[in-house]
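In response to reviewer comment 3 from the previous cycle, which asked for concrete evidence that the modeling workflow produces usable outputs, we include below a single protein chain processed end to end. The sequence was submitted unchanged, and the resulting structure tokens are shown without manual editing.
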Amino acid sequence: MEAQLKVSRAVTRAAIQRPFFGSCLLNLRVEMSDKVPTMATNGKHVYYNKEFVDNLSEDETLGVLCHEVMHVILLHCQPWKGKDPKLCNAAMDYVINENLIYDGIILPEGALINRNGDFTGLAWQQVYNILKDIQAKDKQQQDQGGTIGSQEGDGSESAKNANISSRSQQSIAKEIAGFDEDHVQTNDELSEADMAALKDTVERMAVSAAEQAKAAGKLPGGVDGIIKEIRTAKVDWKAMIRTNIKSSCPDDYSFRRPNKKLYAATGIYMPSMYSETIDTLVFALDTSGSVSQSEMVRHLSEMNAVSLELKPLKTMVIYTDCNVAKVEEYGPGEEINQLNTRGGGGTEFTPVFDYLEYHGITPDHLVYFSDMEVYQGAFPKHAPDYPVTWLSTSQDYPVPFGDLILVKD
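The workflow returned the following structure tokens.
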């Protein structure tokens, strides 16, 4: 079968059978190239060599494409700054391939696979250090006419600390000696800004692909932790709020904000004009005893960053613990210059939603700052008809509605 057709069939199979990888491949440019010996990626493209693909089965072709996708989403195409490229590739391959074969993906003969589980749970940088030590020790022993483990006490210290046996070290040394792949291309020519933009694009692609695969019940086991890390530590939550607020069609009629005052008496709700202009943005601050003063100062900085950028017609700040203690209002571009913290009691989320409902306020977005030191009964029984983002400064929590983001330093 012609290589181009084999690759196209593999991408189609991935979209159907392995939607996470299929979605990512459809967002990357897969191209034939005689400049790579096998397959390679630079984080934006996946290149394949025709002769290499000619010698693969269809299952192996799919496997290597999935392998390249993992290089992309794990951001392996970032500069390595002084590291040995060959060992970097080998370390990355060991980490990736263990996860792929665990999910039943078939890889071609010669792929670096450690079936002893020596590298299970390790980052590629940790594996790199182990490989570097094994390689150095192997060279030293060969110069002395022996092999790793041939003398008592011989072996890599890093490998021994990782509980890798001398016999396994010998096998690894042989594998990396015969490994001659360089299929991850770093983007050394990109500026820091371009590299950051590429990283953001890759992470958004990965999250979107994971959501599609999860909906189909086919999210690979090794990917779940990667996506969780992206969501909790790398997502620009300000951009997420901005996207959520502006997600509706600008200057159009919408039932999301029904004209309740005019039609409540008849029980008939008519759509109201909705504009991309932000009417009301609400910040709710958990002022319970478990929230520290440093967290409060951080809240102030983050509230101003969002408010001054989006310039809502009205910004409300609600201070609350088990009750609403104080409410402040600010105009467009008006700085929130201090935190008038009140409370110090236990945490209850319901009072804020009750306050907004009682006063007939339907915000464009509610951003709730909390350390999430709560119990499930602290939430309202029903989700509101406006978007909510929970910003947790302490821990993850299975919120019953809205989006929760862990805010990291």
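Residues 73 and 203 are 7 Å apart (CA to CA). We consider this sufficient to address the reviewer's concern, and the full set will be provided in the supplementary archive.
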